[in-house]
Specification:
two-stranded antiparallel ribbon; 360 residues; alpha/beta; TIM Barrel
Length: 360
């Protein structure tokens, strides 16, 4: 019996980062705490003194090399080759982006004035966008070079947020009250755009997708609106991507306090929900245990950017313990890292995940 236990421990110790994430998504026991930067593409390039615009203009192998070398310092279980570039999908259908030296590119102005103008947009040339082509090449290179050991993931706005990027968030929110049918048609379009964008990256080798739907925040919409407008489109995108690649990992991140939505998340069909710092992890464990994996939720500014490495470690231990220190939890910041988050703090987060002794 003792010999069998020792053999089991040796086998567990050989599990690499990618396999650990796969186990976590299935809520299986892992030899250590799974850990990842949440997206972090902006942080990766900005921390190396490179803007996202410059990174996009680099040769794909050079950009991929920066991602690889940065992750060698950090040891995140997941790397995100297209993180920070969600708005390129909007650019590909006619939007104009404003690239900054630091941070993500913004959309200069809404593409359409009225919800009914959605018929004027066309996503047939999505795969012709030069920036998207570049990111696809980076994804292929990463999958070839490190994909055996590290999960390669891609993120995109969730359909509700993508719709708000196209028409403006205020008009979208107003439409939820005054013209629900038009909003549903708008979200139908953005869902299709989201699917087609993500499918390109799945074909390029991505093995995990993340939907970041900040406009579906519990700080912005009611539970009723979340059920009416957010769940159907998130489920549609998830199901479509899983149909294309059944073993793909799926995740969604929604900013703000989504505690009132927690009981609804398992109905979406994603494997993992990334939680904001406003959500209590012990409550998440109580509601989601046995139903889906969850992750989070160190404050990206107060903890990951502005605290010391020691304070980061304390916050991480607190997160692990509140999560139940059990299977189905993935350590990560509660939102995307600020561009100027210190490398030492990110490494401190990963160090805790690697050293914390799980009781199996």
């Amino acid at each position: 019996m003792i010999g069998s236990e020792i053999k089991g421990l040796k086998e567990e110790s050989k599990v690499n980062s990618k396999e650990i994430i796969k186990k976590a998504l299935k809520r299986e026991k892992t030899p250590r705490v799974p850990v990842t930067i949440l997206s972090g593409g902006t942080w990766c390039f900005n921390s190396n003194g490179i803007s996202l615009k410059k990174a996009l203009e680099m040769k794909p192998d050079a950009a991929a090399d920066i991602i690889i070398k940065t992750n060698q310092k950090v040891n995140s279980d997941i790397v995100w080759p297209a993180s920070g570039y969600n708005n390129l999908a909007v650019q590909a259908i006619g939007g104009k982006l404003n690239f900054r030296e630091r941070g993500v590119p913004d959309i200069e102005e809404p593409l359409i004035e009225k919800l009914s103008d959605i018929d004027k947009l066309d996503f047939s040339k999505l795969n012709e966008d030069a920036g998207i082509k570049n990111l696809l090449e980076i994804t292929k290179i990463l999958e070839d070079k490190i994909g055996n050991e590290t999960m390669i993931a891609v993120s995109q706005w969730g359909p509700l947020t993508l719709a708000g990027q196209i028409i403006g968030i205020e008009k979208l929110m107003m439409g939820m009250v005054k013209d629900k049918q038009a909003v549903k048609e708008m979200i139908e379009f953005s869902s299709e755009l989201c699917c087609k964008y993500l499918e390109l990256f799945v074909d390029a080798g991505a093995e995990m997708i993340s939907l970041s739907d900040m406009s579906a925040s519990g700080d912005m919409i009611s539970k009723k609106f979340f059920e009416q407008f957010a769940i159907p489109c998130l489920t549609k995108v998830t199901n479509r991507i899983k149909k294309k690649k059944p073993d793909i990992g799926t995740m969604t991140h929604i900013c703000g306090n989504v505690t009132k939505f927690l009981d609804l998340y398992p109905t979406i069909g994603v494997d993992l929900i990334s939680l904001d710092a406003k959500v209590d992890l012990s409550t998440a464990r109580q509601i989601l245990d046995g139903k889906m994996a969850f992750g989070g939720n160190m404050n990206p500014v107060d903890i990951m950017k502005d605290s010391t490495p020691e304070d980061v470690k304390k916050a991480c231990i607190d997160c692990i313990e509140k999560s139940g220190a059990a299977e189905g939890y993935v350590m990560m910041p509660g939102c995307d890292l600020p561009p100027d988050a210190p490398l030492e703090n990110v490494k401190a987060m990963v160090d805790v995940a690697h050293s914390y002794k799980l009781v199996c």
